[in-house]
Amino acid sequence: MQINGPDSQAGVTKMATFEDYCVITQEDLEGLKDCISTQDLPSAVKTIKEYFKQQDLVELNIGVTGESGSGKSTFVNAFRGLGDEEEGSAKTGVVETTTEPEVYLHPKYKNVKVWDLPGIGTPNFKADEYLERVEFKRYDFFIIIASDRFRECHTQLAKEIMRMGKTFYFVRSKIDFCITAEKRKKSFDQKTTLETIREDCEKGLRKIGIKDPVVFLISGWELGKYDLNVLQERMEKELPQHKRRVLMLALPNITLEINEKKKKALEENIGKVAFLSACVAAIPLPGLSIAADIAIIADELRKYYRAFGLDDPSLQRLCERSGKTIEELKSLMKSPLHQGINPSSILTLLGAASLLISEDAIELLVSFIPIVGTLVAGGLSYLTVSRMLKRALNDIAEDAKNVLMASLETEV
After folding, report:
1. pTM (2 decimals)?
2. In sequence order, what are the residues at sequence separation of 6 or more whose Cβ sits closer than 8 angstroms to the Cβ of residue 264?
3. Predicted local distance difference test score (pLDDT) of residue 13
4. 369-377 long-range CB contacts below 8 Å, 24 or more apart?
5. CA 255 to CA 263: how far, in whole Å?
6. Tens digits of per-residue pLDDT, 334-393?
7. How many other C-beta atoms are found inside a 10 Å radius of the C-beta of residue 112?
8. pLDDT for residue 235 is more than 90
9. Distance of CA 46 to the CA centre of its chain
10. What is the DSSP letter of 138?
11. Whole-angstrom Cα distance, residue 10 to residue 149?
12. Run of H or E residues at 351
């Protein structure tokens, strides 16, 4: 099956595949078919809505621990996209400010909870008692932070976490301080410096009983630099499937790699959102389909802007770090939606998307999902909305990339 599409470079018409214009693949259609094949229309709608509800309720609990003054609280803040003095930030200081586990909710995703745990390394420290006190069962994984060398208290804790079947990551913090100090040397080479720090940390851990240690070099003040991408890849890989999306959406959009992974995570829901739209379109009530379509789409588009940090509160924080104004950052945004998500802008994009949908595409959909395909309107809505959301997501991700690159050029 082919759909006509313009080739702007050659100035001729080329034949594009179905997947070029719609994110929905045959595998996606099979998944939806399996999900709702035995249900009537109201039950199918209820199934998909319940899926979205449960998706938003998935919790991610991260325990951050280390010695006093190691940068625990700064990491807790940076992971949530906050500075140390912003509203909702964890208290920081050169002395231990945390005596009990303190939970800090993500400012955008309340199901993401980052816990600032009491400091370790006291003379009578016992890892098993410590983990019992902080209720270790609640955490999906632990971040064990050291601002210098890892010591016995860190390895005791790591071994006890392993014994209890949990995951942990060694993080060497305050790397920016080390780089600043080393830059004074004429022979300074950043890559060599980072490798020396990493090897020293891993060698020290091996000496005190950790086999094949992996250490991630992180700066709480410059979280997007150094090993953040490697750390998030490792965390994502080792999390259960249903929690990976939560992690990717919650991470601050501060590297190009994270920007791309957020896009892929958001893309996964387009098929189900379009299905809701199709079900609404298949209900023969005047005016219902278009009004409901707009509400469904607007909600999804707002999720895109929030996840990429293009909402006004996130842009304001970025301005404070980069020295740019909101107007400067918004001038880099080319998506038709950046001026506002409203019925007019959504209808314009839907209209453009519908022109790309062929009868063959609708017939393909009908063959896979008869419950929707009983009415052509349902098939058209499904394909139109999926096409429109894919295009919007691509545009918004590109805007986020441009804003990120501009902020990195001037970040203070």
Report:
1. 0.79
2. 248
3. 39
4. 369/29, 369/32, 369/33, 369/36, 369/275, 369/278, 371/36, 371/37, 371/39, 371/40, 371/41, 371/44, 371/282, 372/275, 372/278, 372/279, 372/282, 374/282, 375/281, 375/282, 375/284, 377/281, 377/282, 377/289
5. 13
6. 887 877 787 777 777 776 655 544 444 544 444 444 544 444 445 557 777 888 898 899
7. 23
8. yes
9. 26
10. G
11. 60
12. helix 343-354
**Residue whose pair of structure tokens reads 């740019």 in the numeric block:** 324
137 Cβ neighbours under 8 A, 6+ residues apart: none
Residues 6+ apart with CB under 8 A from 201: 146, 149, 150, 170, 172, 213, 215
Please report the pLDDT score of residue 274 as a whole number: 81
Report pLDDT digits (tens) over 43-73: 767 777 777 888 888 999 999 998 888 888 8
Given a cut of 90, is residue 401 above it in pLDDT?
A: yes
In eight-state DSSP terms, residue 240 is -
Would you say 47 and 36 are in contact if contact means Cβ atoms under 8 Å apart? yes
Q: How far apart are CA 358 and CA 264, in angstroms?
A: 26
Rounded Cα gap, residues 131 and 137, in angstroms: 9
Give the 3-state secondary structure of residue 144: strand
Residues near 403 by Cβ (< 8 Å), separated by ≥ 6?
A: 309, 310, 315, 318, 329, 332, 333
Q: Which residue has the tokens 């099956």?
A: 1
The alpha carbon torsion through 308, 313, 318, 320 (nearest 10 deg) reads 180
